[in-house]
Design brief:
alpha/beta; Rossmann fold; 7-stranded parallel sheet; 6 helices; 10 strands; globular
Length: 228
């Protein structure tokens, strides 16, 4: 039997508080995973709020040598490009941790995606996701054929907002022990209730991980009935 999806909402005053709460959740999950399974497997998206979260995490006393970090998605762009999620992520990863960058500079992107898929754990302890103002998450965007790519764990998309992308697919997200959403900004206010309702007409609403924690700021949650 497929377990039901539970999306719990927590609302904080601003993006800084969202990042702090995210750091607390990740730190607790990391300690528990290392205690129980000997390592913590973590997939992280790009963006200012998760980078603020990681900046806070760097100051935590965590078993970083047992932490492995993968990317949820990445733009196809040169190393060091400002469009690359890795450009903001890499300086925030402690040296003791293991970082697995997506191989988006490989000229054979589909082959590189298969290689990256082979590096993934069977189950992620925690996957961090954000959500765009159009309801996309990771690089699972409206109208993109890879939304239906259920036969692979990593897919390469067409061009979206100027870049092709490499992304985790829904089957990987569905197996995560915890999906942590960090959502901030008034531009997300229309989409947040649809995410919480599991509205499958937006890509974010199709994420089926059974345990999902949605941490949002007041601006993003301003149209959400649960706090109205």
């Amino acid at each position: 039997m497929i377990p039901p999806v539970v999306r719990e909402l927590e609302v904080f005053p601003d993006a800084d508080a969202v990042a702090r709460r995210g750091a607390d959740v990740v730190a607790a999950a990391a300690r528990d995973a290392v205690d129980v399974r000997g390592r913590f497997t973590f997939a992280v998206s790009g963006g200012r709020t998760p980078w603020a979260m990681l900046d806070i995490l760097v100051g935590e006393e965590l078993p970083w040598g047992s932490v492995e970090i993968w990317q949820v998605d990445e733009r196809v762009a040169p190393d060091g490009d400002a469009d690359r999620n890795l450009t903001g992520l890499e300086p925030l990863v402690p040296q003791d941790a293991t970082l697995h960058p997506m191989p988006v500079t490989d000229p054979q992107l589909d082959t590189a995606a298969e290689r990256y898929a082979a590096s993934l754990p069977d189950v992620f302890d925690l996957v961090h996701l954000g959500m765009g103002d159009d309801g996309h998450t990771a690089s699972l965007v409206p109208g993109e054929p890879v939304l239906d790519a259920l036969d692979r764990e990593i897919a390469v998309t067409g061009e979206y907002r100027g870049r092709r992308r490499m992304t985790l697919t829904y089957p990987v997200l569905a197996r995560a022990r915890l999906v942590l959403w960090l959502i901030s900004g008034a531009d997300k206010a229309e989409m947040l209730p649809r995410l919480l309702a599991g509205d499958r007409s937006i890509p974010a609403g199709r994420v089926e991980g059974p345990r999902q924690l949605v941490v949002a700021d007041g601006a993003a949650a301003s149209r959400t009935p649960q706090i109205g």
